[in-house]
Amino acid sequence: MHIAEGYLPPIHAAAWAAAAAPFVLHGTRVLTREVRANPESTLLVGAAGAFTFVLSALKIPSVTGSCSHPTGTGLGAVLFRPPVMAVLGTVTLLFQALLLAHGGLTTLGANAFSMAVVGPWAGYGVYRLLRRTGLPLMGCVFLAAFAADLSTYCVTAVQLALAFPDPAGGFAGALAKFGGIFAVTQIPLAVSEGLLTVLVMRLLVQSSRGELTRLGVLPPGGPAGGSGGPAGGAKGAVV
């Protein structure tokens, strides 16, 4: 991640674009409703998008035709839920392809499916599950960001293995090869991203407590890092 321009066979590129498109279209409707219903959330939406853009622009060369980097999607998934991140992540990838030659237009669908669809859903799923167990907020945020990052690269490894099966081991052999190479750089990056996401969330708790309460991240009148808050929030963006 990001898979480079022209690296995937055309049929694979088209298939991943078709797989990502429904999530992005649904997310566009969800984001539009959220901003119209709560205009005050626009700044926080922009901050979540900027966080994703900045982190995912920091790249380390990895498997041929790809690279390793943080994703930044866990924070937005916790705040606004995965459909909104499908839009913000895809827009981020589009601008990076056009302005930074990072990723590409032909591989936009594949990159969006891994980073803007699977990553946020994995991170949000971990967050919801752990909040229900009573784990403090910041622990949940750390593991959500970690899961969003690492799951993105698991999907990218699958995408590359499907496109370029190993001559001897086929899909399984290629998946082991790509996944093993990614793990060297991506596990430390996922840990670092989790810690940074916790730091940003702590700043948001201090500066945007009312908005975080409305979104359900903080319980009404409860402690910021406590375990008793709702897992997802009744008034956040509708999934």
TrEMBL record:
<keyword id="KW-0171">Cobalt transport</keyword>
<feature type="transmembrane region" description="Helical">
    <location>
        <begin position="139"/>
        <end position="161"/>
    </location>
</feature>
<comment type="similarity">
    <text>Belongs to the CbiM family.</text>
</comment>
<feature type="transmembrane region" description="Helical">
    <location>
        <begin position="181"/>
        <end position="205"/>
    </location>
</feature>
<feature type="region of interest" description="Disordered">
    <location>
        <begin position="219"/>
        <end position="239"/>
    </location>
</feature>
<protein>
    <recommendedName>
        <fullName>Cobalt transport protein CbiM</fullName>
    </recommendedName>
</protein>
<keyword id="KW-0406">Ion transport</keyword>
<keyword id="KW-0472">Membrane</keyword>
<keyword id="KW-0813">Transport</keyword>
<keyword id="KW-1133">Transmembrane helix</keyword>
<dbReference type="InterPro" id="IPR018024">
    <property type="entry name" value="CbiM"/>
</dbReference>
<feature type="compositionally biased region" description="Gly residues">
    <location>
        <begin position="223"/>
        <end position="239"/>
    </location>
</feature>
<keyword id="KW-1003">Cell membrane</keyword>
<feature type="transmembrane region" description="Helical">
    <location>
        <begin position="79"/>
        <end position="102"/>
    </location>
</feature>
<feature type="transmembrane region" description="Helical">
    <location>
        <begin position="108"/>
        <end position="127"/>
    </location>
</feature>
<feature type="transmembrane region" description="Helical">
    <location>
        <begin position="41"/>
        <end position="58"/>
    </location>
</feature>
<keyword id="KW-0169">Cobalamin biosynthesis</keyword>
<dbReference type="Pfam" id="PF01891">
    <property type="entry name" value="CbiM"/>
</dbReference>
<dbReference type="InterPro" id="IPR002751">
    <property type="entry name" value="CbiM/NikMN"/>
</dbReference>
<comment type="subunit">
    <text>Forms an energy-coupling factor (ECF) transporter complex composed of an ATP-binding protein (A component, CbiO), a transmembrane protein (T component, CbiQ) and 2 possible substrate-capture proteins (S components, CbiM and CbiN) of unknown stoichimetry.</text>
</comment>
<comment type="function">
    <text>Part of the energy-coupling factor (ECF) transporter complex CbiMNOQ involved in cobalt import.</text>
</comment>
<keyword id="KW-0170">Cobalt</keyword>
<keyword id="KW-0812">Transmembrane</keyword>
<comment type="pathway">
    <text>Cofactor biosynthesis; adenosylcobalamin biosynthesis.</text>
</comment>
